[in-house]
Amino acid sequence: MKTIYKYPLSIGLNQLEIPYIKILDVIIQGATLTLYVIVDTEISNRKLQIIVSGTGWELKDNILYGNFIRTVTDGIYVWHVFYM
Q1: Domain range spanning residue 44?
Q2: Is-contact 84 49, C-beta < 8 A?
Q3: Residue 33 Cα distances to 2, 9, 12, 48, 74, angstroms
Q4: Rounded to an integer, what distance in angstroms lies between the CA atom of residue 65 and that of residue 84?
């Protein structure tokens, strides 16, 4: 079954194993940074790394090979979200 799931994210590296097909968006829902993805519950889980970094933070070299999802503001904080 294909459906949309949400996953709470923390700042830094998030390692997920989920049956994702497509990343849709990242938003602040309530006080939680939340990732929305299309999943297919009939396929095997795939590894997905989500990196949440703040403005002015040092970036690891591997993030340069990742894919940008979105920049999200949360009050005075600005988070930049990537996946690999």
Answers
A1: 2-83
A2: yes
A3: 23, 5, 12, 16, 9
A4: 8
Question: What total number of domains does the chain contain?
Answer: 1
Using CA atoms, how far apart are residues 65 and 74, in angstroms rounded to an integer?
26
pLDDT tens, residue by residue, 30-84: 999 999 999 999 999 999 999 999 999 988 877 777 899 999 999 999 999 999 9
Residue 8: partners with Cβ closer than 8 Å, 6 or more residues away: 32, 33, 34, 35
Tokens of 12: 């830094």
The pTM (predicted TM-score) of the whole model is 0.91
Q: How far apart are the first and last CA of the chain?
A: 24
Angle at Cα 33 formed by Cα 7 and Cα 78, nearest 5°?
150
